[in-house]
């Protein structure tokens, strides 16, 4: 029993030493709380406030300073990023589609490999692949307005003119709807139902044609069970009636905006014919 | 006749158990097992279909699992208990015991094989005693595993549903394998004295191999669930899983964790068994007992240190892979507040190396021949402490603005050129080399080499160590201070190779040189001071605390994500705690674990005690 007590006391003392060192031997830093998914009131924002928002994102939620700092040397410093942007665009190694500093900065955040500053590429890629993630996805997940705020902040700290405009809520929605379309030019309509189904990526979720998606109902014989009216409504308002065994809110609700009327009718006719 | 019947029955049971184990271990691809898997899958789907983030039937295809989007209301608060702390503690306790019971059979198998080869009964007895310790711990592992599942279901129901929908097959096989593991372990342990001699001993050793194979597969499966949360695979960018179970298991960080845990388990298991031997040594009253437990403690320490030496390399590989998977996660790991955790880790690793070396130096008192080497001990101690201090020097910290303000700048006030990684790599390699040197000196303590080439052999060893250390320093200094950032850690692999070459080559030379060595003085097992036993205890406590701390870091770098980038933690406990808070939880866990371990030791003590209750029982024949 004496030995049991002795080793118990020794164990407690050892643990107390480790706990004591951890509590009092090193600084107790309160880690930043998880970033909040805040709703931005863009309509009421001045440019100074917009730049301040960019500052907060750059130094906080965007986690930009984890790498872009003077200490670690893991990513280029960005204090002159808006100034050197034009030099980068003229560099033969540049692989992107930006035309000015603002679009370059935007591109460098969502497609970081378009231009990799020498010495900062992923190991073994000869500076062709950037280790930086796309800030609009994953754990950072910045919205378009937040990305623009960061650009405004970068332009300000570089001492250049701030060219970005504060997006209004409506403008942002329109921008989202038009995402993927070239420079505001209307796209030509798809000619065949197969092309339209492929372009609207229906097969990612449904079994249709040669596609094997399995998030949504199987459409290979949908015409035998559903009429055109049902199919049209299912595309334009997918939550109006959800097929048994499937969840609401999985199918995009904006096909009414994305599709031309003739494309919609072409797809409905095609699906109705699948028997 | 009666004996013969029991022998036949025993064999029949053995064959049945072996058949069960083999079928389960092979995965039971067909028949009743497959049907059961299907049934379990359907049950899981049916239950999960009602909630967000559930598995969905899709009209005949594989179920699609959609990740849940959680709010604070999705985390049950039960009787004011903090779910995170409960799951944290229970998971850690389960992991400690699991590591122990998975590690012990590995070295028991090796020791039993050595006993068979040398026909030295002492090895067999020691292996049996090792496995005896792990038997009680095995029950505790199972109880804690059940408690962990229960806690996850209670406090994180949606996350558990998402993960179990993805891993339902592997979870089912895990349960089957656990039965197989139990059956094999019990036959292995209870059949130890039965399966002795000739063919039976081979059968027993094969059971040991099977036990390790099943145990390793169990660990690999559980590791897949954990690493999926860090580096999810088999799901799309939104976290939708469409049925590729192997992709989810074989995620980016699975193998690095597998390797690291395998090696660390052996080191940890060795240290716990060392503590057992130390406890028994301190309690022993007879000289033979003390000699036995001294030898057992020495062997356990040898096992722990043998696994500890390559452990930093496995850890480095894991950290590099985390970095390769996500630079953001890598910097979170090595920068900000987590960098300070590595300062605590340095203290613990320093404690481990110093305790292990101190134990070896104390052990030199077992032979009078060791006095020849005593004068070197102080130099070994100085070098190891110096290397520890370099490792202890804080790394350059990458901080958020808030952290910068709290710290008063990006640098710790004592930060100097020794804070960077090449200096730490150099220090740890030197520490490992000098620990190996301590061991070589210990081996020579009671011997004089009689080989004709002793001088040449000694010279070769000195040259190996000297050139190795010079090379390690050159690589560290050149890459650390004369190249740019990208190449700073390029020295690590050649440094590791240098260390391994020096250790292996010098051990081979030493073994050959001392093959027919003359004994200067006998090695007297049991002649070791009690303080050496406390060094073994220190080793066990430091290992346990270190495992708890590193487990927190591994889990903590996910920050506010249950599954990185897929399932966000929106519970009130999503924040990263301060180091003091984390250290306190780890400390409470360590105390609970050590209390249970001491209980296991005490049980082994009382199980061998017989009380003669005079007059209590009726006299025979009365």
Key structural traits:
heterodimer, A: 275 residues, mainly alpha, Cytochrome Bc1 Complex, Chain D, domain 2, 2 domains, two-stranded antiparallel ribbon, 2 strands, 1% strand, B: 622 residues, two-stranded antiparallel sheet, 20 helices, 6 strands, 2% strand, disordered N terminus
Task: Write up this protein.
The complex is a heterodimer of chains A (about 280) and B (about 625). Chain A is mostly helical and about 280 residues long. Chain A has two domains: about 40-175, Cytochrome Bc1 Complex, Chain D, domain 2; about 195-270, Orthogonal Bundle (Cytochrome Bc1 Complex, Chain D, domain 2), CATH 1.10.760. Chain A has ten helices and two strands; from the N terminus they run H-H-H-H-H-H-H-E-E-H-H-H. In chain A, strands 1-2 form a two-stranded antiparallel ribbon. Chain A is extended, with a radius of gyration of 27 Å. With about 625 residues, chain B is mainly α. Chain B is built from 20 helices and six strands. Chain B has a two-stranded antiparallel ribbon with strand order 1-2. A two-stranded antiparallel sheet of chain B has the order 3-4. In chain B, helix 2 (about 30-50) runs antiparallel to helix 5 (about 155-165), helix 7 crosses helix 9 (about 255-285) and helix 12 (about 325-335) packs across helix 13 (about 335-365). Chain B is globular, with a radius of gyration of 27 Å. Mean pLDDT of chain B is about 85; it is low at about 1-55. Classes of the chains: A mainly alpha (about 280), B mainly alpha (about 625). The interface between A and B is large, with 57 and 75 residues.
């Amino acid at each position: 029993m004496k030995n049991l007590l002795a080793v118990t006391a020794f164990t407690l003392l050892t643990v107390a030493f480790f706990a004591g060192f951890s509590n009092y031997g090193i600084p107790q830093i309160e880690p930043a709380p998880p970033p909040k998914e805040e709703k931005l009131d863009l309509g009421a924002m001045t440019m100074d406030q917009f730049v301040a928002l960019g500052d907060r994102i750059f130094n906080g939620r965007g986690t930009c300073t984890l790498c872009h700092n003077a200490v670690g040397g893991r990513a280029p410093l960005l204090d002159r990023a808006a100034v050197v942007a034009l030099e980068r665009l003229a560099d033969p190694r540049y692989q992107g589609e930006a035309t000015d500093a603002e679009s370059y900065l935007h591109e460098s955040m969502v497609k970081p490999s378009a231009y990799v500053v020498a010495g900062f590429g992923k190991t073994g890629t000869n500076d062709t692949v950037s280790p930086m993630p796309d800030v609009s996805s994953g754990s950072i997940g910045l919205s378009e307005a937040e990305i623009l705020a960061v650009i405004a902040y970068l332009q300000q700290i570089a001492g250049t003119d701030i060219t970005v405009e504060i997006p209004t809520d409506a403008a942002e929605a329109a921008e989202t709807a038009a995402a993927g379309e070239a420079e505001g030019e209307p796209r030509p309509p798809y000619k065949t139902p197969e092309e339209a189904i492929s372009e609207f990526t229906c097969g990612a979720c449904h079994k249709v044609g040669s596609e094997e998606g399995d998030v949504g109902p199987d459409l290979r014989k949908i015409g035998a069970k559903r009429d055109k009216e049902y199919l049209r409504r299912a595309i334009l308002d997918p939550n109006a009636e959800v097929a048994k065994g499937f969840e609401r809110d999985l199918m995009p609700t904006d096909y009414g905006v994305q599709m031309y009327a003739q494309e919609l009718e072409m797809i409905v006719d095609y699906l109705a014919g699948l028997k | 006749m009666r004996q013969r019947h029991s022998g036949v029955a025993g064999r029949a049971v053995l064959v049945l158990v072996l058949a069960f184990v083999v079928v389960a271990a092979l995965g039971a691809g067909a028949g009743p097992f497959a049907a059961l898997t299907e049934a379990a899958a359907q049950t899981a789907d049916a239950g999960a279909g009602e909630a967000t983030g559930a598995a969905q039937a899709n009209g005949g295809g594989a179920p699609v699992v959609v990740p849940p989007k959680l709010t604070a209301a999705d985390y049950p608060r039960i009787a004011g208990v903090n779910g995170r702390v409960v799951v944290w503690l229970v998971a850690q306790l389960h992991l400690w015991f699991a590591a122990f019971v998975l590690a012990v059979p590995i070295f028991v198998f090796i020791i039993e094989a050595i006993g068979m080869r040398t026909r030295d009964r002492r090895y067999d007895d020691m292996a049996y005693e090792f496995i005896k310790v792990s038997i009680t711990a095995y029950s505790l592992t199972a109880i804690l595993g059940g408690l962990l599942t229960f806690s996850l279901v209670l406090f994180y129901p949606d996350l558990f549903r998402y993960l179990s929908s993805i891993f339902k097959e592997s979870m089912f096989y895990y349960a089957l394998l656990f039965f197989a593991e139990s059956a094999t372990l019990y036959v292995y342990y209870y059949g130890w004295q039965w399966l002795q001699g000739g063919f039976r001993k081979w059968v027993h050793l094969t059971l040991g191999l099977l036990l390790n194979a099943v145990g390793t597969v169990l660990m690999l499966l559980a590791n897949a669930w954990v690493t999926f949360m860090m580096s999810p695979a088999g799901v799309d960018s939104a976290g939708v899983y469409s049925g590729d179970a192997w992709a989810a298991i074989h995620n980016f960080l699975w193998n690095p964790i597998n390797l690291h845990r395998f090696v660390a388990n052996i080191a940890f298991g060795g240290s716990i068994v060392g503590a057992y031997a130390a406890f028994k040594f301190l309690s022993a009253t007879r000289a033979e007992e003390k000699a036995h437990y001294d030898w057992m403690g020495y062997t356990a320490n040898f096992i722990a240190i043998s696994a500890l030496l390559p452990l930093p390399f496995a850890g480095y590989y894991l950290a590099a892979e985390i970095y390769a998977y996500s630079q953001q996660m890598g910097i979170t790991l090595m920068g900000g507040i987590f960098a300070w955790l590595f300062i605590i880790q340095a203290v613990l690793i320093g404690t481990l190396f110093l305790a292990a070396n101190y134990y070896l130096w104390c052990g030199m008192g077992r032979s009078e021949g060791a006095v020849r080497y005593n004068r070197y001990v102080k130099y070994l101690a100085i070098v190891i402490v110096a290397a520890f201090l370099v490792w202890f020097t804080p790394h350059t910290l990458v901080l958020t603005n808030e952290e910068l303000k709290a710290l008063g700048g990006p640098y710790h006030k004592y930060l100097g050129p020794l804070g960077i990684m090449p200096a730490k790599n150099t220090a740890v390699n030197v520490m490992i080399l000098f620990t190996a040197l301590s061991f070589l000196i210990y081996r020579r303590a009671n011997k004089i080499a009689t080989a004709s080439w002793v001088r040449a052999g000694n010279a070769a060893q000195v040259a190996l160590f000297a050139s190795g250390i010079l090379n390690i320093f050159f690589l560290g200094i050149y890459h650390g201070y004369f190249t740019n950032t990208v190449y700073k850690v390029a020295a690590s692999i050649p440094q590791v190779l240098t260390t391994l070459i020096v250790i292996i080559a010098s051990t081979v030379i030493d073994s050959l040189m001392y093959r027919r060595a003359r004994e200067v003085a006998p090695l007297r097992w049991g002649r070791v001071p009690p303080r050496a036993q406390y060094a073994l205890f220190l080793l066990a406590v430091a290992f346990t605390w270190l495992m708890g701390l590193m487990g927190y870091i591994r889990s903590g770098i996910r920050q506010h994500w249950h599954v990185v980038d897929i399932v966000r933690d929106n519970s009130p406990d999503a924040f990263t705690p301060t180091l003091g808070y984390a250290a306190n939880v780890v400390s409470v866990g360590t105390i609970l674990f050590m209390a249970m371990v001491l209980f296991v030791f005490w049980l082994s003590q009382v199980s061998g005690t017989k009380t003669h209750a005079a007059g209590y029982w009726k006299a025979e024949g009365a």
